[in-house]
Design brief:
Elements: E1 3-4, H1 9-21, E2 27-33, H2 52-60, E3 62-64, E4 67-68, H3 73-82, H4 108-114, E5 118-124, E6 142-146, E7 166-169, E8 172-175, H5 180-194, E9 200-205, H6 218-221, H7 231-256, E10 263-269, E11 309-310, E12 312-315, E13 325-327, E14 331-332, H8 336-343, E15 353-354, H9 360-363, E16 375-378, E17 391-394, E18 398-401, E19 405-408, H10 424-441, E20 451-453, E21 460-464, H11 480-484, E22 493-497, E23 501-508, E24 522-527, E25 531-536, E26 544-550, E27 553-562, E28 568-569, E29 573-580
Parallel strand pairs: 2-9, 2-10, 3-13, 4-14, 5-6, 5-9, 20-22
Antiparallel strand pairs: 1-15, 3-12, 4-11, 6-7, 7-8, 10-12, 16-17, 17-18, 18-19, 21-29, 22-27, 23-26, 23-29, 24-25, 24-27, 27-28
Helix pairs in contact: 5-7
Length: 581
């Protein structure tokens, strides 16, 4: 299944000549929005959205019209960053410790940095926050991000709400003025301005229009006051219009600085719309009926096309990529890393293997013999993957869904007519391909991505309930509003103690900056089979500190905060500090 990196001879010669004749290698800007679906752009027929700059980019770019990603955030990001299927690299959920990209995977940031590019990331990383998973440890020299999957989720700075927030700036939290999306673009433009005389790679994954805490400036929400719809939808549209304004500034600055011709600009979504049609047929959920999804079935999280077919525009006319046209063959997020590497003339490590294909022949119009492909995706959102769970096996023509439904996508893009009984041989062929794919990617499903404690690169870390490895998603306090409700719930962290020595663990319900006084009168800490201690809680305490000696290894960490009536909850936050050997 995996493909060693290969570049066709003719294409290699063309690109070598192009790079050699240029003043410098092309810059790369990869802009990915959150929860904005294929239909959430004016150029794609949306009846209300105001997106003039996205529409302008659409007009002048190559459009991948059958471009597919995973149905949710972290899986898409892991596949995008590695060129490998999300299940292969250990990311199949957005929480539960299953959103962290394995430490032995090579990221897009690392590839570009090793090739001499300056690298920066601004916005939503969502592949782990601490060493070795955080963006600043994965090839990005400049990393300004919020934590977890959305502003205001449990690991994020306490109280963040999209405006005047604290964000993680290369290792420490600092306050920023303004609205989140404006900040990401502003910092990206600062980085570009500072590095415009050398090749740069900017990864700009906005958290908007994700709605953990739906907020946008009133002037953007008010753009849609004339539409008879819900306030939530007006906010969603307003968030997209704000992104559009920032995109316009980015395009203008690139042109002003003379960078637009020598910059590969990729603009894409991370999954289907969070405001699209849900259950099918649409009249089963009346609240979805007014929401536009370009005729596709399903929205974010769905394994029907509406959950994973997203927009992807590529603008780079200097590289022989003539805009204003559509590319019809099926493509995917796993293709972008090999494509960008080839366009930039980068020689990747020989041992690097990708699941994706370079799209350069399609982009440059030299794809007369483009092969038939099968692409696989699933939406697991469970602690451990389950075979055939929420699965779609895709070719240019067919979609085999859950081994029960088959759709001829050219004739039936809305996936309304199941024709599996009419084409049993097609279903059998796709089923066999899935069986081989599953056998290939499942070889490391029994592994976890443990949280590192005591690493030299980050000797103090904060763990949060977002990463409890519990199968009960409904009881997982993955966002701060849930933490505020103080649920009586618990779960284990999987940790890796890196160095032998003495450690301090501080158990809290809320992080130290919240100054929240515990109601518990006892606290218990269990670290594998090495520690099981209970301490009293002092009156008015905001945390309970344990000091213990540990030896290296992988183990579970569990905590309890126990009230006088013996009800208990896990510590939603734990500080882990390496003290000394």
């Amino acid at each position: 299944m995996q493909k060693l990196v290969q570049i066709g001879t003719a294409t290699a010669l063309f690109l070598a000549a192009m790079v050699a004749s240029a003043d410098q290698r092309p810059n790369v800007i990869l802009l990915m929005t959150d929860d904005q679906g294929y239909g959430d752009i004016g150029a794609h027929g949306h009846p209300h959205l105001i997106t003039p700059h996205m529409d302008r980019l659409w007009e002048h770019s190559v459009r991948l019209t059958q471009f597919h990603v995973d149905p949710t955030c972290s899986p898409t990001r892991s596949a995008l960053m590695t060129g490998r299927y999300s299940g292969r690299v250990g990311v199949w959920h957005t929480v539960m410790g299953r959103n962290m990209l394995r430490a032995d995977e090579t990221t897009m940031g690392e590839v570009f940095r090793a090739a001499g590019y300056r690298t920066g990331v601004y916005g939503k990383w969502h592949l782990g926050d601490t060493y070795p998973y955080g963006a600043r440890f994965r090839g990005f020299e400049d990393a300004i991000v919020h934590f977890a999957g959305g502003v205001g989720q449990t690991p994020d700075f306490w109280g963040n709400d999209y405006f005047e927030d604290h964000y993680h700036d290369n290792g420490s939290w600092r306050p920023f003025q303004g609205y989140c999306t404006d900040i990401w673009f502003r910092e990206a433009l600062r980085f570009i301005r500072e590095n415009r005389d050398q090749p740069f790679f900017v990864y700009l994954p906005t958290n908007a229009a994700h709605q953990t805490r739906p907020h946008v400036a009133e002037r953007y929400r008010a753009l849609y006051d004339h539409v008879d719809t819900t306030e939530r939808l007006k906010v969603f549209w307003g968030m997209i219009s704000n992104i559009d304004d920032n995109l316009g500034v980015l395009l203008d600055r690139l042109e002003h600085w003379g960078l637009i011709d020598n910059t590969i600009l990729v603009f894409m979504g991370d999954n289907g719309t969070c405001m699209g049609q849900g259950a099918y047929p649409p009249d089963q959920r009346a609240e979805w009926s007014e929401r536009f999804n370009a005729g596709m079935r399903g929205g974010k999280g769905s394994h029907y096309d509406g959950g994973h077919r997203v927009f992807c525009y590529i603008h780079y006319p200097r590289g022989g990529i003539q805009g204003g046209r559509d590319i019809q063959p099926i493509t995917a997020h796993i293709d972008l890393l090999p494509t960008l590497v080839e366009l930039c003339g980068i020689e990747p490590p020989e041992e690097l293997a990708w699941d994706g294909e370079s799209l350069v022949p399609l982009l440059t119009g030299n794809a007369d013999d483009w092969p038939e492909r099968t692409i696989f995706l699933h939406n697991q959102r469970v602690l451990d993957p389950i075979k055939w769970r929420n699965t779609s096996i895709m070719t240019d023509r067919w979609r085999l869904v859950d081994d029960r439904e088959l759709y001829d996508i050219g004739q039936d893009p809305g996936q309304q007519r199941n024709v599996i009984d009419d084409y049993p041989e097609v279903a059998a062929r796709l089923r066999d391909e899935y069986e081989h794919w599953w056998e290939d990617i499942s070889q490391r499903f029994d592994e976890t991505t443990p949280l590192y404690v005591g690493a030299e690169a980050e000797s103090s870390v904060q763990l949060s309930a977002h990463d409890w490895m519990t199968p009960d998603l409904g009881r997982l306090p993955w966002n701060q509003p849930h933490v505020l409700r103080r649920p009586e719930t618990n779960g284990p962290w999987r940790i890796r103690v890196v160095r032998p020595g003495r450690y301090a663990f501080v158990l809290r319900e809320r992080p130290a900056v919240a100054d929240f006084r515990l109601t518990a009168n006892q606290a218990r800490l269990q670290v594998g089979d090495q520690v099981d201690q209970t301490l009293p809680v002092s009156d008015g305490a905001t945390g309970v500190r344990f000091e213990v000696d540990l030896t290296p290894g992988d183990m579970e960490l569990m905590t309890w905060l126990i009230d006088s009536d013996q009800t208990s909850r896990g510590a939603f936050y734990v500080e882990a500090h390496y003290l000394d050997e």
